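Revision sheet: structure tokens.
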Amino acid sequence: MTYKQSLEWIYGLEGHGIKLGLSNIKKLLKHFGSPHLSYPVILIAGTNGKGSVASFIANILCCAGLKVGLYTSPHLITIRERISILQDDKRTDIPRTAFARLTEELKKEIKKIFDCPPYSRPTFFEVLTALSFLYFKKEKVDVAVCEVGMGGRLDATNVTEPILSVITGIGLEHTNYLGKTLSSIAKEKGGIIRENTPLVTGAEGEALNTLIELSKEKNAPIFIYGRDFYVKRCVEKVLSQNLDIRGIKNSYPGVLLNLKGKWQHSNASLAVAACEILSESFPIKKKHIYKGLENTTWPGRLEVMGKEPIFMLDGAHNPQAAKILREEIIKFKNTRLRSSSFGRQVKMIFGVLKDKDRQQIMKEIFPVVDEVILSKPQNKRAVPLSTLKREGKFYNKNITVSKTLLATIKELKKKKNKNDIILVCGSLYLVGEARSVLLKKKQDG
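Predicted:
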């Protein structure tokens, strides 16, 4: 099987839709000797920030000299971004050859195993999750850091037995699958909590109360952002920020983050608290925490690219993320860079998928930008641009439709207005396409 053939087969599984449950993944992994049980796992759930937290933790573990498997979703440019190895201060995505070989192995066995009920064929996410576990075993990782796809209790990643669970902030999302209230969603995400196993969380209010109750039931120690660990001080710079973090055990003054955004305060703190707990099992020192946090990059999350104009990429695909992005937009518009105005005009390229709460997203972001340019993500779930234009006019009158994303970016780059910020947001699929154009890298799946 070639890499191209492996992509065609895996993407063909998207037609199977979303099927929450562990029966398929358990049966499949058992057939391969349960590779997910051959190394320790840190499991991370939440509404926003789980990818950033996963990356922070993986980088810290890597700086401590460990070989780390990192499984995240979604991807921006290549599907191989989802499955990577961090070692010797380097992150390497799974090679095309290994991806194709493991896909072929999985395809052969799936055909044998799932021919009859009660098992339906595995989904796109289940197969990728199994593939990641197999790859991490073949690579003999010391530890794996895995981001939950949706929810927690019935997510394919929850087949693991984590030595530490992390749950970031919780908001209303995927309500058709996870429930209509914060408490019900927290209960689903709290499904990753294990008996006598620590939980680190950034949840608040009703969601936090639910997690506290679940932790009591499991006799799981719980560590809470804002109570047991927190950010004491922040100094923001144009492309970075310095934090003074108080962890569970130690203080970390002057931590350098090369990730922008207020939401990274809790994300970095969660990673610090998690790694302080993990230091009881792994040789993690304070210097590793400092270096790991500084080394972390997370593309497509308030990522700044280029200059004159500056392009800023951020998924902001739910109301919680959109609200925080709104604050950042206002801040950027009022900030000066050297002798020139920085962010005086914000032009936004926007697209969104049908299963997102687009009304609330638009309500937060559209009024604070100067111009909205609509662009459709290359995804069958993308909202038609005619619909977005009709709905978006309630929040911003200066709204146009782009012919193509490539043409729009080229046109904006030609203008070279150093006072402009070009913001791309609303969908990580759109952000990935924009990143591909700006880096002149072809998306390979």
